[in-house]
Design a protein that fits this description.
alpha+beta; YojJ-like (1; 3 domains; seven-stranded mixed β-sheet; nucleotide-binding; cell membrane; membrane; nucleotidyltransferase; CdaA
Length: 386
């Protein structure tokens, strides 16, 4: 009998140890998820680990003063950690409180799922081609009732035409997000809390809001960039850019399969993408993204350079002709001086007289002008020439 009681007590103790370990494991798991999805949290977590390591070193080396300070810091460190991690703790509690066992997406029939995926992909493709900004959120296990209250209720079936018309910039509901529950559009123009992560400047308010919602819920948000027209998916605090085919595959896996199968498919899709890129006969280093503003700038610079070349060629032509005129002028002046110096022959006097009477700017060939004067009967006197 005592042996049976001891055995029963040991079983109870073992069960307690298993439950205790499971609870600790769940807490550590959620803490690691919080740390992984936030770069600021990672830095703070590294600081805490560094303080604990310093306390251990101070204890081993018998550094009493440093050990006392670190003990005091660790003693009140719990309150400090709670104050620092208030947003993350609130997000974790929201996830625990809003979790439901079944998702509205998984309760749809096969035809309804296929139609929903087709409408979402068609709408995202059209919006991307038009470069119209869009934010479409699919509710999963966590309830989005609080965010639906911030928008305008619609309660309509999901169609690509309705989604495209909602996000037209001239409509009053385009600013905000569309939330889809199951195969129904619950609301439009809903607002989400932006993320606190440090994102690149190319991501705007839509991307930040989508990532912020994915950090506190398990929802999936489709983002269409207004500037570039790219399609992205925000889930679990991460952002993935996709094309239409990848989006269709992702939504099919998301709606019809579990989260584990979705993550495995994403890894296989990334490997397949790398394999397809390796088959291309194009060097990826030589592929460059060219901005249209750069092209316009280059074209204007080339036009200006061509215009400058034409103007320069005109100037060079003028400068090439001017030496000829100057040579003619110098030649005319030299002939006139030679004729004035010599008084022996009358024909030379006629030529010198002709060169003096004719304007050298308008005359290039002095022999033609002198012949013209001789033909007209103008013969200069020798006394006038002296």
């Amino acid at each position: 009998m005592p042996f049976a009681l001891i055995t029963f007590q040991s079983i109870i103790n073992s069960l307690k140890a298993i439950v205790d370990f499971s609870i600790i494991w769940v807490l550590v798991y959620y803490i690691l998820r919080i740390v992984r999805n936030n770069s600021r949290t990672v830095q703070i977590f590294k600081g805490i680990v560094l303080i604990i390591a310093m306390r251990f070193v101070a204890h081993k080396l018998s550094l009493t003063t440093l050990k006392a300070l670190l003990d005091l810091l660790i003693q009140y460190g719990f309150l400090v950690v709670v104050i620092i991690f208030v947003p993350e703790i609130r997000a974790m509690l929201e996830r625990l409180g809003k979790t439901s066992v079944f998702s509205a997406l998984h309760s749809l029939s096969g035809n309804e799922k296929e139609k929903l995926v087709d409408e979402l992909v068609d709408a995202a493709t059209v919006l991307a081609e038009r470069k119209t900004g869009a934010l479409i959120t699919l509710e999963q296990g966590h309830s989005l009732a609080d965010y639906i209250k911030t928008g305008t209720p619609i309660n309509s079936s999901v169609t690509s035409e309705l989604l495209c018309s909602i996000f037209v910039t001239s409509t009053p509901l385009h600013d905000g997000a569309v939330i889809i529950q199951g195969d129904r559009i619950a609301c439009a123009s809903a607002y989400f809390p932006p993320t606190a992560q440090d994102l690149p400047t190319r991501y705007g308010a839509r991307h930040r809001a989508a990532i912020g919602l994915s950090e506190v819920t398990d929802s999936v948000t489709i983002i269409v960039s207004e500037e570039t027209g790219t399609i992205s998916i925000a889930e679990g605090g991460k952002l993935r850019e996709m094309d239409a085919a990848s989006l269709r595959e992702y939504l099919n896996l998301l709606i019809q399969n579990s989260e584990k199968e979705v993550s495995q498919s994403l890894g296989a899709h990334r490997k397949q993408r790398k394999f397809n890129l390796s088959k291309l006969n194009v060097d990826p280093i030589k592929i460059e993204k060219v901005d249209s503003s750069d092209l316009n700038l280059k074209s204007t610079e080339s036009v200006e350079s061509n215009a400058e070349k034409r103007d320069f060629s005109k100037l060079m032509g003028i400068f090439k002709k001017k030496p000829k005129d100057n040579d003619a002028k110098d030649k005319t002046g030299d002939d006139a001086k030679a004729v004035i110096g010599s008084e022996t022959s009358a024909p030379q006097e006629d030529e010198s007289k002709t060169s003096e009477n004719v304007d050298p700017v308008t005359t290039v060939d002095d022999t033609n002008s002198s012949d013209k004067l001789n033909d007209e009967g103008g013969e200069p006197n020798e006394s006038e020439e002296r």
